[in-house]
Write a structure and sequence with these properties.
The chain is α+β, with helices and mostly antiparallel strands. 26% of the residues lie in helices and 42% in strands. It has 4 domains: 68 residues, conserved putative lor/sdh protein from methanococcus maripaludis s2 fold (Beta Barrel); 93 residues, Efflux pump adaptor protein, beta barrel domain (Elongation Factor Tu (Ef-tu), domain 3); 69 residues, OB fold (Dihydrolipoamide Acetyltransferase, E2P) (Beta Barrel), CATH 2.40.50; 82 residues, Orthogonal Bundle (Helix Hairpins), CATH 1.10.287. It contains 4 helices and 23 strands. Helix 2 runs antiparallel to helix 3.
């Protein structure tokens, strides 16, 4: 038994020795290994410098529909999303006068009627006196004018009373009613009232009740903001590519039509509002309020020599790269750079297509 154990130990020692010898032989045959260094090649690329604007799609002309008379909503002729043409009925505002207002309107009619009758009698007497030459033409014309004014006042008081009582009347042959009509052709975007809701009129002293919001959706623009770092580079007329989050894959083209002269604070940063007119929807169905990003194209270079900007070192307004020297060495080379898109940078001189540049060494954090 002890003899067998001894044999096994000897056998294992021989195997281990053979393995060690084979490993040394392999290392000797392969010789020293070359260390592969990471490099990037100078290639031709299209480089586009862009400024990012963040905002949303909005109608060019969006309006609030309001009433110039007080009352309550009697009828709604439209619903959210409806397409309406200019002049089409939207909302009927039914007058809802208080008992005091109605009584006052009735008394105003009665007073105007009394004044009219009184002046009519005086006019008749003045006409007879004028025929006898007992009053001057000037006095007679004065009485005529007073009677005409009283007659007009009486008609106005009656029309006002009729409008309060039935909600419509006729003035100079034109039908006046309390139906609010569409001021433009477009879509109903918001409905702010329901039947029975009170309506405060629009006057010089109060904004009035907003009944509806509507807009022409054929004319849309992008409204957003640009960081103050980029605003000095952009100008009106620059082309833009708009990306809408809700419509992936749809790229909409436009151009800058307005850059605000005044900045505003947004999330502790300074930004400038901009507006971009949409030129081509690319068959996309746009809706008011879509969140969107617009890339304003400041400059573009096609098929130019370029390198990843990460391998370029900027020092004292100059640019340098490291190129291989021998098997393990490196040397620094000055280059002239041009346009950058923050990923690739244009090489104007110092390198040619196909040249290799060393990647920057990554420092280990100890």
């Amino acid at each position: 038994m002890q003899g067998q154990t001894k044999k096994r130990i000897i056998y294992l020692a021989i195997v281990l020795l053979l393995v060690l010898l084979a490993g040394k032989l392999l290392i000797f045959k392969s010789g020293p290994q070359k260390v592969q260094r990471a490099t990037v090649k100078v290639v031709r690329k299209n480089i586009v410098e862009k400024a990012l604007a963040v905002g949303s799609i909005e109608p060019l002309n969006e309006i609030e529909v309001k009433s110039k008379i007080s009352g309550v909503v009697g009828k709604l002729y439209v619903h959210l999303g409806d397409f309406v043409r200019a002049g089409q009925p939207l909302v009927e505002v039914r007058p809802d006068p208080t008992p005091v207002e109605l009584a006052q309107a009735q008394r105003d009619v009665e007073m105007a009627e009394i004044e009219k009758k009184t002046l009519f009698s005086e006019l008749q007497r003045s006409r007879k006196l004028k025929e006898k030459g007992m009053i001057s033409d000037q006095d007679f014309e004065k009485i005529q004018r007073q009677y005409s004014e009283a007659e007009l006042k009486y008609r106005m008081r009656k029309e006002h009373l009729q409008l309060l009582e039935v909600g419509k009347t006729k003035i100079a042959g034109k039908e006046i009613e309390t139906v609010i009509k569409a001021p433009l052709t477009g879509y109903i975007l918001e409905k702010n009232v329901n039947v029975g809701d009170p309506v405060v009129p629009l006057t010089s002293y109060q904004p009035g009740t907003s009944l509806l919001r509507m807009a022409n959706m054929d004319h849309l623009i992008f409204k957003g903001t640009v960081d103050e770092i980029d605003v000095g580079k952009i100008k009106e007329g620059l082309p833009c590519k708009i990306q809408i989050g809700a419509l992936p894959g749809k790229l909409i083209s436009g151009h800058v039509i307005h850059i605000s002269l005044k900045a505003k604070k947004q999330d502790n940063t300074t930004v400038f509002p901009v507006e971009i007119q949409i030129d081509n929807k690319s068959d996309a169905v746009l809706r008011a309020g879509y969140s969107a990003n617009a890339n304003i194209i400041i400059a573009q270079r096609d098929s130019v020599l370029a390198l990843p900007e990460r391998v370029v070192t900027f020092r004292h307004d100059s640019a340098f790269v490291r190129i291989p020297a021998g098997e393990s060495g490196a040397k620094e080379k000055y280059i002239a750079t041009g346009l950058s898109d923050a990923i690739y940078i244009e090489i104007l001189s110092g390198l040619k297509e196909g040249d290799r540049v060393l990647e920057k060494q990554i420092r280990q954090i100890e």
